[in-house]
Automatic annotation (TrEMBL):
SUPFAM superfamilies: (Trans)glycosidases. It comes from the Bacteria. This is Uncharacterized protein.
């Protein structure tokens, strides 16, 4: 089992197999690349740009929407180019990998802007397939400009069964991703049975490695360990988010919880 941490510090944490760092968060403001670390780039979540250039924002009815940030239209060509250039430059640094976050659309009606409507109609595809293809094609374009040896990983919204909601088709994304990271966040982890259900469902649908992200800031230690145990049998890796100190302190118990999950 690969163990990692995710934080906002541009520093590799030696006790873990991998460190993830948000080099370009949803704020849209990028920071210095972190060497030896998986640098996380928020793709279509960009608050700064969304507020400044509203014509680039994704358009939709709001129905079934799940988002906490400004979403940019995935067909905005200038933005796609800008993003690819940024990622290409990032890959030239001494990073351990490129990790893409916010790759999907905010809900089933997005993006209905005039750019997207035109491209969809020209495609001859169904709305659902066109949306998935738009997202997957972007990931493919990123993959094509990266060095072959540069690991590329993707965050997924934690819904393994409805590609039409966010335009995330696991089967087509798999061809470009070296591994997937699924955030299964909870503020308490009091009843983590749902984590087992989701991790198992992703496991059944993915052939590439599955990493599950666990939120460390808040839940009690025993509940965090119960969360680890709930998903460990289905995951290839676990990533502990936003409390590196606690993650390090709990490492022996975390390893024990993983062992327990394997022997159940
Ligand atoms: Zn659009």
């Amino acid at each position: 089992m690969d163990l990692g941490v995710l934080n906002n510090h541009a520093k590799k944490i030696d006790d873990f197999d991998r460190t993830f760092y948000q080099v370009k968060p949803v704020s849209g403001i990028s920071k210095e690349p972190a060497p030896g670390v998986h640098n996380i780039v928020s793709c279509f979540g960009n608050n700064e740009l969304g507020k400044k250039e509203t014509e680039l924002c994704a358009v939709g009815s709001g129905e079934g929407e799940q988002r906490l940030w400004q979403c940019i239209c995935p067909s905005a060509e200038s933005y796609r180019q800008e993003l690819k250039e940024y990622i290409l430059n990032l890959s030239k640094q001494e990073v351990a990998g490129i990790h893409l976050d916010c790759i999907g659309l905010p809900g089933p009606s997005y993006c209905s802007c005039s750019r997207c409507q035109k491209l969809w109609q020209e495609s001859g595809l169904t709305w659902e397939i066109w949306r998935c293809k738009t997202v997957t094609d972007f990931i493919g374009e990123v993959k094509s400009i990266l060095p072959d040896t540069m690991p590329l990983s993707l965050s997924l919204y934690p819904d393994p069964v409805h590609p039409e909601r966010f335009g995330l088709d696991l089967k087509s994304l798999e061809q470009y991703a070296d591994f997937f990271l699924v955030p299964l966040y909870d503020m308490t982890y009091k009843s983590p049975y749902w984590m087992e259900v989701l991790a198992n469902a992703f496991r059944r649908r993915l052939t590439k490695p599955l990493y599950v992200e666990i939120y460390m800031k808040g839940p009690k230690e025993k509940d965090l360990l119960a969360a680890v145990q709930a998903v460990a049998a289905h995951a290839d890796g676990l990533v502990f988010a936003y409390d590196t100190k606690l993650s390090r302190e709990l490492l022996p118990q975390i390893k024990m919880a993983i062992e327990n999950a394997r022997t159940l």
